[in-house]
């Protein structure tokens, strides 16, 4: 596997990787990230970026303590068959004089967009810049961050970027917990409770598929999570692409959830229909 730590090194490596796909990451890789690499490998050489993007962290968030494991990440990418790992610096992505960001609305409004102001601006900006630097024909993102996936799809369509966006299903631990780099923040006791978020989402989605009353079932699910020690930011049924809250179900929908265990914030989502 090639490693590029500068933009010139990246530019020198890219001609040898025609038809390449991009897997953007912030490092601290887990099996879910490697699923993205495997999916991308099926169509051509893979470029994986590792960059902890400061623009998507708000004041008081965990930028400085976000987990980092460069050696482990590089070993995992090489074992997964990644062709090139790109590890830019902040100055590579946001050079001196930088004055442009990508403003997003639509699916970026509400939910994570409301609770983390500026987060999706940072995501859209860094993804656009990584597309410009790596010039991929396609990019792979996980369904675990459902709202982020829809924001990127909308941005690519609106800006007519020549990149096909592929989604890969959420990888889960055997007990159902959606894999996330931040799971390593969980204490042993919290880790025992954490799978209840996924279990509650699955039960709720199944009840809704069976015709249960939407507001009633959502209220029961929130109460159940609170009883187990979660602080629920939101648990809602939304349209899959626009993430508009639904008062009732009359077509395809997505159940999205965010809840905290202490200082650890967990996200999950499942299809309802």
Rg is 19 Å
| Corresponding CATH architecture of the largest domain | 3-Layer(aba) Sandwich
Number of domains: 2
Number of strands: 9
Query: What is the global morphology?
Result: globular
| Secondary-structure element pattern, one letter each | EHEHEHEHHHEHEHHHEEE
**CATH class value of the largest domain:** Alpha Beta
Q: Please, how many helices?
A: 10
SSE-based structural type = alpha/beta
Q: What's the helical proportion of residues?
A: 25-40%
CATH fold label of the largest domain: Rossmann fold
Terminal residue distance:
41 Å
Strand percentage: 15-25%
Mean pLDDT: 97
Ranges where pLDDT stays below 50 over 5 or more residues in a row are none
Main pleated sheet: 6 strands, parallel
Strand order of the largest sheet: 1-4-3-2-5-6
Protein architecture, described:
The chain is of the alpha/beta class. It folds into two domains: 2-168, Rossmann fold (3-Layer(aba) Sandwich); 181-268, Pantoate--beta-alanine Ligase, Chain: A,domain 2 (2-Layer Sandwich). It contains ten helices and nine strands. Helix 6 (119-134) crosses helix 7 and helix 9 packs antiparallel against helix 10 (214-227). The strands form two sheets. The protein has a six-stranded parallel β-sheet with strand order 1-4-3-2-5-6, with helices on both faces. The protein has a three-stranded antiparallel β-sheet with strand order 7-8-9, covered by helices on one side. The N and C termini lie far apart (41 Å). The protein is 37% helix and 18% strand. It has helices at residues 7-13, 31-41, 70-79, 90-93, 112-115, 119-134, 146-159, 188-193, 195-209, 214-227; strands at 2-4, 21-25, 46-50, 84-86, 138-142, 164-168, 231-238, 254-261, 264-271.
């Amino acid at each position: 596997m090639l490693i590029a730590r500068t933009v010139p090194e990246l530019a020198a490596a890219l001609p040898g990787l025609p038809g390449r796909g991009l897997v953007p990451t912030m490092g601290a890789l887990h099996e879910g990230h490697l699923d993205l690499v495997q999916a991308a490998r099926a169509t051509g050489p893979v470029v994986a970026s590792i960059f902890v993007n400061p623009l998507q962290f708000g004041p008081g968030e965990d930028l400085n303590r976000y987990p980092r494991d460069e050696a482990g990440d590089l070993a995992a990418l090489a074992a997964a068959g990644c062709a090139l790992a790109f590890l830019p610096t902040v100055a590579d992505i946001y050079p001196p004089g930088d004055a442009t960001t990508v403003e997003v609305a639509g699916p970026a409004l509400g939910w994570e967009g409301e609770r983390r102001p500026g987060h999706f601006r940072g995501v859209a900006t860094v993804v656009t810049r990584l597309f410009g630097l790596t010039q991929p024909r396609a990019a792979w993102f996980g369904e675990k961050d459902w709202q982020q996936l829809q924001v990127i799809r909308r941005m690519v369509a609106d800006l007519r970027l020549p990149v096909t966006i592929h989604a890969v299903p959420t990888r889960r631990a055997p007990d159902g917990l959606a894999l996330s780099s931040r799971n390593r923040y969980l204490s042993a006791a919290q880790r025992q409770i954490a799978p209840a978020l996924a279990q509650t989402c699955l039960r709720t989605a199944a009840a809704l598929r069976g015709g249960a009353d939407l507001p009633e079932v959502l209220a029961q699910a929130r109460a159940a999570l609170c009883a187990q020690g979660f602080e629920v930011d939101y648990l809602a049924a939304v349209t899959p692409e626009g993430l508009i809250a639904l008062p009732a179900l009359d077509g395809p929908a997505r159940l999205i959830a965010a809840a905290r265990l202490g200082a650890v914030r967990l996200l999950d989502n499942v299809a309802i229909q």
